[in-house]
Amino acid sequence: MADRNIRAILVVPANNTTMEVEIRRYCPEITELEVARIPRPHRPLAAADLPTYRQSTLEVVAPLAKKHTDLVIYGCTAAGFLAGPQGDTEAVKVLSDLVGAPTVSTAVAMGEVLRANGLRRVDLVSPYIDWKNEILIQFLAAAGITVLGRNSFCAQNPTELGQITGEQVYEKAMEVARDGSDGLLIACVQLPTIDVIPQLKAQLKRPVWSAVRCAAWAALTALSQPAERLAA
What we know:
The protein is of the alpha/beta class and 232 residues long.
């Protein structure tokens, strides 16, 4: 545990019901976690939505930025990879400048954590429709990560996304896992994974990372807190 009070702002799409719960469990060092929820359309987020989405992000984060903050966790995974590496970096900088604290991006954290743990060839589970999966795979490729197999729920809107259970995630992961992969990545911070990851690691006998787990690793690292336990 941290020996001081640590305050973080978690930024997520308005429909998200998973990331706050899992970040609190992964990062007990964060003693105060406030959540900024970003309005989003009732359909898959697209690149054309990003200007409005970013403006809405600043509007909901600004009131929370009035108190001292140690870290911002940008949990909008799809908004990150749809923007591309440069666009995501720009969005992160704007948030950091607004809050006056470092910001970690879930989209970037996925590639960073996989590389840091020696995983270059992974299987992918996501909730995204096909064209978004292609953009995600390109985003990971830019970070040096190759996707071998993929399995998706192809959720058509936030309601469908929110109905996906941990058991369903487990089943998708077991279906897609290939012998030649270094590990498994479960993308999207809405998918409930914290309770099924231990089962998947035991069954697959390889590392399993989720978007939230990657964000937690990046957050603890940015806070100079021990993150190694998340790789165990």
